[in-house]
Amino acid sequence: MTKAKVYFTDMKVPINGQSLLVKLRKLILKAKIDDIDFKNKFVAIKVHFGEEGNLSYLRHNYAKVLVDIIRERGGKPFLTDCGTLYPGGRKNALDHLDCAYLHGYFPMATGCHVVIGDGLKGTDDVCVPVKGEYVKEAKIGRAVMDADIVISLNHFKGHEMTGFGGAIKNVGMGCGSRGGKMEMHCDGKPEVDTSLCEGCKACARQCAQDALVFGKKGKASIDGKRCVGCGRCIGACPCDAIGGTGFSGAKKLNYRMAEYALAVLQGRPNFHINLVIDVSPYCDCHGENDIPIIPGVGFFASFDPVALDMACVDACNAMPTIPGSVIHGKCKEHGEHFEGVLMPNAEWKCGIEHAVKIGLGVKDYEKIVVT
Question: Were both Cys, which of 4, 184, 191, 207 would link to 256 (CB 3.0–4.6 Å)?
Fold first, then answer.
């Protein structure tokens, strides 16, 4: 099988040397983004603006590097993301824009506009046919599908269900409308271990479906008819009381996410960049961030989102864990940093294999170092 080319540059910057932004620009150009014709094309730059309170999201400065490259080539870039299922600062377009601007993603700083992909209330989507095993029509934000070119700019980090979040997750999950996100999550239903539950209701504050029910003793349970399986309660619980053997949706979430990514990318030019920095244990959807689990690695770029994610997870697994992080001391037992370490049921290998199976990309790669 032909290997995909994945380009890499580290974060070493000598005193009075080129900045990280200069290194990022050099990486993008060396990775042959110029193979794409940008002239007069609308270019969706998929990025995660970060939840308010989270400080591990990508700085807007990185996005500006990419915007400048596209504009110099006659393209019409815009930054985009779609609404969230859970309550928070990005569940509708107005709140989402407030959050983006708060984090520096406004036109005077980035050089382009922000367009929330699925509209005001997360209902402006397009049903995109896809030859998937689990998804036949993906619900993708209309603005994303209106674009001529898709580029993902991704913060590579841990995730409590998918093990890590990289290009596949940022495109697949991130470009799904609120209805699409519900479809991707719909198979998994968590359970509560009442012996661990302290009745603090932190889980309920993160549930958009009012699916958490509290009995006479204050212990939580989950109404399966209301629960959509988004998994926010798992990350919110400070007692690790939510999860258990009944939470079986991680694999199908990965499968559907890969099929959604295929729906977004099929039939048009696409390019992907992963920044493996501030590798927080959980998604930037959280309104907080913990100690990074490993030191910063660097920047990666490729036309193949699968090979890109594979190269990043390999690079992360080769790094030592940071003392005080949630995975420090746990990885010898598991042999790697993501699957089954952050959360007992976290998966990522099945998602990569499925992405290869459906033709999203290949997992074998040639790593090309850019100095």
Answer: 184
